[in-house]
Design a protein that fits this description.
structural molecule activity, single chain, Claudin_CS, about 250 residues, about 60% helix, alpha+beta, Butyryl-CoA Dehydrogenase, subunit A, domain 3, transmembrane helix, cell membrane
Amino acid sequence: MCAPLSGSGPLQRSLVALSSVEAREREMDTCACALELLGMLVYVGAWLCALTTTILPQWLTMSTALLPVESYELGLWETCVVQDIGGMECRPYDSLLGLSSDIQLSRILMCASLAVGMLGILVAIPGLYLVNSCEEHGGYRTKRALTVLGGLLGMVSGVLCLIPVSYMAHFAVIHFFDEKVPDVVPRWEFGDALYCGWMGGFLLIAAGLLLVTSSWCSQVEPQPVLQQRCQVMSKDFKLRKRSEYV
């Protein structure tokens, strides 16, 4: 414990400065906590969007003038025939080796995006400000490192999600405006899964940026208030002793 010292002047100014520093640290902690919570909520929602994109069969859609009551849907795992009366029949792909390279690459990248995103969530949770963990393994520095690592993994997951979605969209655009194909031949168009994938990919990147930014809001490791006050009073006491000696 620190005994109170008599006198005013430098000690009071030091305590006032310490109080202002503590107020700024509380504001920084509040800002970091808010960014972390927002980042994690966006992170989980974006990961669910990526999962939905992977499962949905509506990556590409096609309707023909010959059969206006039916439309076709192409996904990563199955193809579907949708009828206007409400019926829908889906059929999974017969063979993995018989798939086109586009579908195979999209499968690999989307599964990698989900795996990296889930790993980022699991890594970032122990690093949250409100979670009491890692106190015996470096404390604050370890938590901040976990938060940054989780954010970086989220951004990588977002990029991995955007690559196959954008590639399939590019594939549809190239074939849709191909002048060599007659106008009577039906063409693939964008499906709902592509829009969901774009949203999930950009949200994953945004969530990663929020987590990384939250770690920058509190760069200095916080110390207990009593310890800080003791340090200030000890320094002031030494200065006063030195001035009296001189």
